[in-house]
Amino acid sequence: MNILYISISGNTRAFVKRLEAYAVEQHQLDPKNPLIGSKEISENSPFEIESAPFFTFVPTYLEGGNGVDSGDTEILTEVMREYLEYEDNFKHCLGVVGSGNKNFNYQYCLTAKQYSEAFKFPFLADYELRGTAADCERVYHILKENSLN
To answer: Would you tell me how many other CB atoms lie within 10 Å of the CB of residue 23?
Structure first.
């Protein structure tokens, strides 16, 4: 399974690395369990054409508004949106996983929800900040299930 992610504060990177380690453990228990490969997208990333299916992991960074009726603007993660738009890379995305701070109420994982709506791929899962061990297990199984479809 392939993951494209963007990490501003390091939380998404830490979660993806723990998810990769969990996948190794699961693969060792049963070789039918898939491993995870990941690629971090940043301002310095060269844009490439993606040809293999992947999942997108994106944190939430917004400016202005409340995300409900007064609007908001995506900040800091725009390069992921641009990467997905590049040569229609989004067409290979199997779904998006969002993260954020639950203190943000409705805006929690709003960037991932907006990507789901804009690119027409499913919002699969969420986790708060760096996630927990239970989040890693839950998200791994959701990715595994959605990579088989």
So the answer is: 20
